[in-house]
Design a protein that fits this description.
mainly beta, 12-stranded antiparallel β-barrel, Porin, globular, about 260 residues
């Protein structure tokens, strides 16, 4: 029973962050790559809110799960103090544990003008390559597909990554941990050069998870909160470029929701 509970905790955390950006990320703020597992059985009380923000993980939404996020960020584009928003809507297809999992996301890159007048699509495929108590996933992601509006200048870019899940034991408690390492195009020098990204997230309580990530140029830190009375809803907050390395330190907040069994196959 303990093994089953821990395995479910890892899977749930791996997929419930949905984070659209870095991937399920908010496209503008690149806020959160996470997806929740609404299709799994109810999780035991010990399950903690495992989260990874700012960079994509190698997991995808499970088949039939729909998700969405609304992201708000200050200092849009690294200049000024105005706030702007972005939105993402997506769906999971396939099954990464049994074959290939596929996630399709539509990103609306700005909410300050006419709604929906700028955006692009992205696609990610993932595969579980090492099952067990410490599963390992690999994935490939392509962004900047079918661009429209002002997002037509967004380059098509790709990423490959791996995500590993394990547990940390401390003080008689167990904390789920996820670690992602990847390589992508258009990550550095104004998104013109390739680079390496990496990050780690940990679930501290049933509601709270925290993470830190290197995006290729900046260090981002953040936390996500899952509401007890609103299943499938998460709010996350980040400080992007926390060291102000590029002079673009800013605050981002993202509201995410999940809809299991959006369709049946």
């Amino acid at each position: 029973m303990r093994r089953d509970g821990l395995a479910l905790a890892r899977l749930r955390g791996a997929l419930i962050a949905l984070a659209l950006a870095g991937g399920l990320a908010a496209p503008a703020a690149r806020a959160q790559e996470a997806v929740g597992i609404g299709s799994l059985p109810p999780a035991p009380q010990a399950v903690k809110n495992l989260t990874l923000l700012s960079i994509p993980s190698a997991t995808v939404a499970p088949r039939g799960l729909g998700f969405g996020s609304l992201g708000l960020t200050s200092k849009r584009g690294g200049t000024g103090n105005d706030w702007d928003g972005s939105m993402a809507l997506g769906v999971g297809l396939g099954n990464a544990a049994e074959g290939l999992g596929l996630q399709i996301t539509a990103n609306i890159t700005s909410l300050s003008n006419n709604f929906g007048d700028s955006g692009y699509f992205e696609a990610k495929i993932a595969r579980l390559i090492a099952p067990g108590d410490s599963p390992l996933y690999i994935a490939a992601q392509v962004e900047g597909l079918a661009r429209w509006g002002q997002a037509s200048t967004v380059p098509e870019r790709g990423r490959i990554m791996g995500t590993w899940f394990t547990d940390l034991s401390a003080g008689g408690d167990v904390f789920p941990l996820m670690v992602t390492l990847g390589y992508g195009t258009h990550l550095r020098n104004g998104r013109t050069d390739p680079g390496i990204f990496a990050g780690a997230g940990i679930g501290l309580t049933r509601n709270l998870g925290v993470s830190a990530a290197w995006t290729g140029e900046t260090l981002d830190v953040g936390a996500a909160w899952r509401f007890e009375g609103a299943p499938g809803m998460t709010v996350s907050a980040e400080i992007n470029d926390v060291t102000d390395r590029l002079g673009s330190r800013r605050f981002s907040i993202t509201f995410s929701f999940l809809r299991p069994n959006l369709y049946r196959s």
